[in-house]
Amino acid sequence: MKTTIGFFLTLSISGIAYFALHAKPQEPMSTSDKKPNQPEKKVVKTEAEWKQTLTEEQYRIARQGGTERANGEVYKQFKQQGGGTYYCVGCDAELFSSKVKFDSRCGWPSFYDPSKAKNIKTIPDIDGVRTEVKCNVCDAHLGHVFTGEGFDTPTDKRYCINGTVLKFVPDPKTDPQTK
What we know:
10 strands; alpha+beta; single chain; Metal Binding Protein, Guanine Nucleotide Exchange Factor, Chain A; 6-stranded antiparallel beta sheet
């Protein structure tokens, strides 16, 4: 029995050490000083074009429906950002405003409403429980929306969004970091 416990303890420690040594650091959220031009029509690219446009992590999340690590560098960066607007990293469509962001303590950027509803679409997830949030302009996977969790927000919704697929443009009038 001691041998078996020792073996699994060694295996667990080895796995943690391997992950710590080989885990990639999370890339920061894209930022820009200038509001991007808004797309006037759907953005369609080949997979090769998306791979040229996006970083490996952005591609994994936006095009393959992945999820970034909770409470990572992107989330810390999000919490420190002041006033501004969040755009889709794939097509520059306006998605969310800092006016509707809130700290849900879930480890990912949270908003209670999109700033441009026409640029967001929701789709029931294949798990039958969650609702996926996608960019309506380029079809990028953004995250999920949850309803009825009891947050004190006007909509009682939590748009739980991967910060890696957002581009933040600070508002110089309201963001203390740009003054």
